[in-house]
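[Structure tokenization] protein backbone as discrete codes
[Encoding] learned vocabulary of local backbone shapes
[Protein] chain in single-letter code, fold in tokens
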Amino acid sequence: DGCASAEKAKEMIDTAVRQGFNFFEWTHKRANGEEFPATVLLTRTMVGSEMILQATVRDITAQKQAEEAFRQSEERLRSIIDSAQDAILMMDPTGAISFWIPAAEKILGYSAQEARGRKLSQLIVPERYRAAHSAALPEFFKTGRGAAIGKTLELAAIRKDGVEIAVSLSLSATKFNDSWYAVGMIRDITEIKKAETELRQFQR
């Protein structure tokens, strides 16, 4: 945004210290000088009487490439999403799934044939989230806006085998033929959350 990195980093750190956490996108540099986009989660925690910040950094190069490819051409998008590690899915104006890639099957257990046409809320949304999910749909389908649009959230999802997993969900809106569709990118972060829990327990 035009600010020096040192100034912006201090702002991000201060926010994490004040609120307890801060999640944002950043540009990092590898040892070889190559820059890459990443998400950073700063989490405030205590080690004895000392406060520290734990940083979880995720390379989102593939996600950014997928977003750019979607804008450029459907063919190029297909070549990327078929090898994507994150699940990419789309919800149509009726609340049903209209797009489901192989990574979604790997993470959530449903094949594209099983998932397409089914209501997202009934397929992967845990029972405790369904009321809020349903309540948000009318406004989204009318305006393409919502509290979760343009954000990355940490939630839970239900796999086909009934197991609940922790996921990060990035939502965006796109318009086709005057109707709003929701596009979601889902990553299984179950192991990350387990590691964070173990780290907190180790630090006590």
